[in-house]
Specification:
Length: 505
C-alpha cells in the first residue's frame, strides 16, 4: 500500500497578509462605514444651522421645493440669498428640493426635514470614497496604497463636517470622484469607448451645475484628454484610439440612457454658463450685474465685499506680496480649517483658529508628501491618466489661489479660503505620496514591508488625535446640540470616549 503526500502550500508571511488585508474590499468598506458613522454623529446631533452656510442652502432648497423648479426668479421670496436667478450652482439644491417637498407634504417638522437632507448629504460625501479608490486603482495605484489613502482622507474632520451639513460641497465631492474615475478610464482604454466619452460629458456638465468652481476641472480635464488622444492618434492612427460606433453599442439601453443624460447636462450647461457669458460677459456674473444694488445688499456676503472694497484701494500685483499672502494667509487657513468644528454658542459659531495637533500633522504630512511626489515625478510623467489628473488639480488650485489673491488685493483681508475648496484633490495627493513613500522605502530598506506597515500605523494614530468626528465631540458646547437629537442619550458617552482617545488639543 503506497501513500502519497501533498505538500502544504507555502504560508504567506505575516507582512504579506497585512498588506493583502489593507488592500481588501473589507478595509475599503470599513473605511466607508467609519466615515459614515463619523458624519452621522454630527448630522444627527448638531442643531441647525451648521457651518458651511447651511441656512443659505436650506433656504434655496425650500424655495425650489415650493416653486417646483430650479429656475427661480427675482421675487421677494429669494431676497437675502443673493443671485439665484442666474447662478450656476443649483443642481444640488434642485435634487434636494424633492425630498424636502415630500417631507413637507407629510407634515414633518423643520428639524426632521433637515435631518433627512443631512442624511442624504452624508451618503453623497461618503459615496465618493469608493469611487475615488476605484479611480486611484485605475491609474495604477496598488490596492493597499489606495485604501490607505482613503483611510487618511476619511479621517479629515472637514470631510465629516461637509458630509453632515446641508451644502453642495458633498455632491461636488461625488461628482469630482466620478469625473476622476472617468478620466482615468478614458486615458487607459484602448480604444476609448464612446460610452465613456458620453459619461464624461454628462458628469462634467452636471458637476459644473453643482458648483461653478468645477468649471476649470471640467475644461482642463477634457483638454488634457484631447491632447493625450491627439498624441496617440498621430503615433498609432485614430482607428486604435477611439472606438467606432457598433451595432451592439447602438442597441445598448445603457448607452442611450447615458446619452440622454449628457444631452440634458449639455443643454442646462449652455442655458446657464453660455447664456451668462453672452448676456453678462461672465459665466458666473456678480449679483449686481444681474440685479440692482438694493436687491444684492440684502445678501450678507455681497454687502460685506462691497463695504470692504469701498474702504480699501486695490493693491498692485507684486511677487513679494503674493508669496506673503500664500505663506501667511492662504496655506495657513487651508490647514487650520482641516479640523474645523463648530456650532451655535453664545459667542456665535466656534471654529478652529490656529493650527491644532491634527492641523500640524496635516501640515508636516503635506510637506513630506510633496517631497515624495517630486521623487515620483518621472514615473508620473509616464502615466497619461495621472498626468491629466495632476494637471487638472494644478489648474484648479492655481485658479483658486489667483481668485483668493485677487480678493485679498481688493478687500485687504483674506476671504473665501477654506480647506473644503481643495478637498476633492486630497485623495490624489495622498495616493501619490503613498506610492512615493513605498518606492522610497523599497529603495532604502532591505525589508521595507515593516516600515510600510509602520507608516500606516502612524496615519491611524495621527487620525485619532482629532480626526473624523473626534474634534467635534471633544470641543462641544451644550448649545451645539439639538434637544430632539435622536442620539442625544448616547452623546455624553461618545464625548467621554472621544476625550480618552484624543490626548492633545
Amino acid at each position: 500500500m503506497s501513500a502519497t503526500s501533498t505538500a502544504a502550500p507555502p504560508r504567506t508571511p505575516i507582512g504579506g497578509r497585512i498588506r493583502d488585508a489593507l488592500g481588501s474590499r473589507w478595509t475599503l468598506w470599513g473605511t466607508v462605514a467609519l466615515a459614515f458613522v463619523s458624519a452621522m454623529a454630527i448630522a444627527l446631533s448638531a442643531d441647525y444651522f451648521l457651518l458651511y452656510d447651511e441656512f443659505y442652502h436650506v433656504g434655496i432648497i425650500r424655495l425650489m421645493a415650493e416653486q417646483g423648479t430650479p429656475f427661480l426668479t427675482d421675487t421677494d421670496a429669494v431676497r437675502g440669498l443673493g443671485d439665484v436667478e442666474r447662478y450656476g450652482s443649483y443642481l444640488y439644491h434642485f435634487v434636494m428640493s424633492w425630498p424636502y417637498a415630500v417631507a413637507s407634504s407629510l407634515g414633518w417638522s423643520e428639524y426632521a426635514t433637515i435631518l433627512l437632507l443631512r442624511v442624504l448629504t452624508v451618503l453623497m460625501a461618503v459615496g465618493s470614497i469608493p469611487v475615488f479608490a476605484a479611480a486611484l486603482r485605475r491609474i495604477g495605484v496598488g490596492p493597499a496604497t489606495a485604501n490607505t489613502a482613503m483611510l487618511a482622507f476619511s479621517s479629515l474632520p472637514v470631510l465629516s463636517f461637509i458630509a453632515a451639513t446641508v451644502n453642495y460641497d458633498a455632491m461636488l465631492l461625488l461628482a469630482s470622484a466620478t469625473f476622476s474615475l472617468l478620466i482615468a478610464r478614458a486615458a487607459t482604454e484602448r480604444p476609448l469607448r464612446l460610452t465613456t466619452v458620453v459619461l464624461l460629458i454628462a458628469v462634467g456638465g452636471l458637476g459644473s451645475l453643482t458648483k461653478y468652481t468645477f468649471l476649470p476641472v471640467f475644461v482642463s480635464g477634457i483638454a488634457g484628454l484631447v491632447i493625450l488622444l491627439l498624441i496617440r492618434g498621430r503615433a498609432a492612427g485614430w482607428s486604435s484610439v477611439i472606438e467606432r460606433p457598433r451595432s451592439d453599442l447602438l442597441r445598448s439601453a445603457g448607452f442611450w440612457a447615458a446619452l440622454a443624460v449628457a444631452v440634458v447636462a449639455v443643454g442646462l450647461f449652455i442655458e446657464r454658463y453660455v447664456g451668462n457669458l453672452l448676456a453678462f460677459g461672465n459665466p458666473s456674473p456678480d449679483c449686481a450685474t444681474v440685479h440692482d444694488a438694493e436687491y444684492c445688499e440684502d445678501y450678507g456676503p455681497w454687502r460685506r465685499n462691497e463695504e470692504l472694497d469701498a474702504n480699501h484701494p486695490d493693491s498692485p500685483i507684486r511677487p513679494g506680496s503674493m508669496w506673503v499672502f500664500f505663506a501667511r494667509s492662504w496655506a495657513n487657513i487651508i490647514f487650520s480649517t482641516l479640523d474645523v468644528v463648530g456650532g451655535e454658542t453664545s459667542q456665535g459659531i466656534r471654529t478652529a483658529g490656529d493650527l491644532s495637533t491634527y492641523g500640524w500633522f496635516a501640515l508636516v504630512g503635506t510637506v513630506i508628501a510633496l517631497f515624495l511626489i517630486v521623487l515620483l515625478l518621472p514615473r508620473i510623467l509616464r502615466n497619461g491618466a495621472a498626468v491629466i489628473l495632476a494637471a487638472t488639480a494644478t489648474t484648479y488650485l492655481f485658479a483658486l489661489f489667483w481668485l483668493n489673491y485677487g480678493d485679498f488685493r481688493s478687500f485687504g483681508i483674506p476671504i473665501g479660503i477654506q480647506s473644503r475648496y481643495v478637498l476633492q484633490f486630497v485623495p490624489l495627493l495622498l495616493a501619490a505620496a503613498g506610492v512615493g513613500l513605498s518606492r522610497t522605502l523599497s529603495a532604502l530598506q532591505r525589508h521595507p514591508l515593516p516600515w510600510k506597515i509602520g507608516s500606516v500605523v502612524v496615519i491611524i494614530l495621527a487620525g485619532l488625535q482629532g480626526g473624523w468626528a473626534l474634534s467635534y465631540l471633544v470641543s462641544y458646547q451644550p448649545t451645539w446640540f439639538h434637544p430632539e437629537s435622536p442620539i442625544g442619550a448616547i452623546l455624553p458617552a461618545l464625548q467621554r470616549v472621544a476625550g480618552l482617545v484624543v490626548l492633545t488639543g
